[in-house]
Amino acid sequence: MAAPIVKVCGVVDPAELALLAAAGASDAGVWWGVAGSARSLSVPQLQDLGQADAPIRRALVTFSSDAEGIALAAAALDADWIQLHAFQRPSVVDELRRRLDAAGRDRRIVKVLHLDAGVLLEGPFLGAYGCAGADGYLLDTVVGGRIGSTGIRADPAALERAVERLDRSFLVAGGLGADDAERFVGLAASEHWRGIDVDSSARNASGAFDATAVSALVAAWSPWAERRAVLA
Predict the structure, then answer these.
(1) With CB atoms 3.0 to 4.6 Å apart as the test, which of 56, 110, 172, 210 could cross-link to 21 if both were Cys?
(2) Among candidates 154, 211, 216, 218, which has minimal Cα distance to 186?
């Protein structure tokens, strides 16, 4: 069976990118436009990562609603896809899609959807996001509106209910670790499931990426893949 996407977030330099690739991660999340985070990079830092020789896809992760700025940052990173991680409106997705298409670069747009106490906050806008050009979704669990690498554990039952409403590919985040794979076997059976997005579970106690932890994540989640891990 094809391996799922295992995306690890918060990469800050080429050495981390190489470590994740060697450990088997398929995608690396690079932050830009995430106010208050030491891991939110400048455009020159994005360029360094974009030029790094590592066999791993790069995703630009941002809270920004500036479509022009996002497109420029994605170009600097040479991103394969863009993760809109905040509460960006469908109009932002639409403008970003138009800018990406005009640039002639096939970059996917993944819109994060937030689950709070089992409620899919963006539920009323799913149709609008799809029409605007979102290629896929990422479901994350939040409490009280706090977003972005919260480590809040996802509830499998709530997620399974939420994904019944989705008509395109999705990833799942929310405090996931290697030990959680068995709990999410029902979710991973969905025809649209493509993989997971992690941060803290890929790090050691000091906060540095840990190759052994990343390899354990890949090994634990791979058996649940039923199709090639390509956002489509």
Answers:
(1) 56
(2) 154
